[in-house]
Design brief:
Layout lengths: L1 H8 L11 H7 L2 E6 L2 E7 L5 H9 L17 E11 L6 E11 L3 E5 L6 H8 L7 E6 L2 E2 L5 H5 L3 E4 L3 H5 L6 H5 L10 E2 L2 E2 L1 H14 L16 H13 L5 E5 L7 H16 L3 E5 L3 H7 L2 E6 L2 E6 L6 H8 L4 H7 L1
Parallel strand pairs: 5-12, 5-13, 8-11, 11-12
Antiparallel strand pairs: 1-2, 3-4, 3-6, 6-7, 9-10, 13-14
Helix pairs in contact: 9-10
């Protein structure tokens, strides 16, 4: 940001494109809002609030607040004990003695600067990477010893961090993307034959229920906007009625309207008793959605706090590598 301001101070013109409205407010002098390929208007940034910009982008009022029902978390859905992972060809640990518990009807957020072990933690929990030590007990079984299909077929859903690389098959139509997780189950077909009538009805229902903007089930995933691609993934994973939802960067790269929608769907799952592990580098998002927040730094948990019992400064210190106990001893 300082570099951009330095350029403009020296007479350069900068065209800044972003869906992050706080950044637009901080960087820009004027703003042009586009919606569905049309210009909604150009305004002096001093004359626009974040809510004004969101309304122009989406075409309606956007509610950034999250309605949270008061409820007591249930029994542990996932218990992670001593999970460690060593970097290949090195004695350095990517994950070191991670201990976490996710309970039914709660959101446990994982905060931290990107690249501090969050991706590897999720990969270990979803069978994409084999942990070196520790256990992750779900319904009495250690899922660290299971493969991805064994994990996913028993009530666990996963919203991956990269919707285009690991969430969808981009050249495939939506109806085939909707069935990716469960194509082998009897509902979708038997004896190697797909029950396309069921798949089509299932796809149409998800498109309708989750508000996916698309010409239809035969549209290729690559032709949808980022927000609608994410809705396809969220629809697929939530419709599986999971007991545990692992969501990593669920709103990365989305506009204000899509973020509002995804947040509400995640909260609905929490209110319905699903245990949710939410990983995000957006601190505001983690604090807004989570019942408890664990902060990761270099593969270790620096502390676990309730959002209402901490401060942004305290979170920042933990994200920088200072344990919670040490921070509070100095306070």
């Amino acid at each position: 940001f300082n570099m951009i301001h330095s350029l403009t101070d020296h007479g350069f013109t900068v065209l800044f494109i972003s869906h992050k409205l706080n950044e637009v407010k901080e960087i820009c002098d004027r703003v042009t809002v586009l919606r569905l390929g049309r210009t909604c208007g150009t305004y002096r940034i001093a004359d626009c609030s974040v809510n004004d910009l969101a309304r122009l982008m989406v075409g309606r009022e956007v509610d950034f607040s999250v309605e949270r029902k008061a409820q007591t978390a249930g029994e542990a859905v996932l218990e992670i004990e001593g999970l460690s992972l060593q970097r290949k060809d090195s004695a350095v640990n990517i994950l070191e003695d991670v201990n976490l518990t996710v309970r039914a009807g709660e959101i446990l957020g994982i905060a931290g600067v990107d690249g501090n072990g969050q991706s590897e933690l999720v990969e270990c929990l979803t069978g994409l990477r084999r942990a070196g030590k520790g256990r992750a007990v779900y319904e009495g079984k250690d899922i660290l010893q299971a493969n991805t299909r064994e994990i996913m077929k028993n009530g666990i859903s996963h919203i991956p961090q990269d919707r285009q690389r690991t969430g969808l098959v981009m050249p495939m139509p939506l109806r085939e993307n909707f069935m990716l997780q469960d194509y082998y189950t009897p509902a979708f077909g038997t004896h190697g034959f797909v029950n396309w009538a069921y798949v089509d009805a299932y796809s149409d229902k998800l498109i309708r229920d989750f508000g996916v903007k698309t010409p239809g089930r035969f549209e290729l995933a690559q032709n949808l906007s980022g927000g609608n691609q994410q809705k396809v993934i969220v629809a697929r994973e939530i419709s599986r009625q999971p007991k545990l939802l692992i969501a990593m960067h669920p709103t990365r790269g989305l506009d204000a309207g899509a973020i509002e929608y995804i947040h509400k769907k995640i909260m609905e799952q929490r209110d319905n008793g699903v245990g949710i592990l939410l990983v995000s580098t957006e601190l505001e998002e983690v604090l807004k959605l989570s019942d408890r927040v664990a902060v990761m730094y270099e593969g270790r948990i620096m502390g676990i706090v309730k959002p209402e019992e901490t401060t942004v400064e305290e979170m920042g210190l933990m994200m920088g590598g200072m344990p919670l106990e040490e921070i509070r001893q100095q306070a």
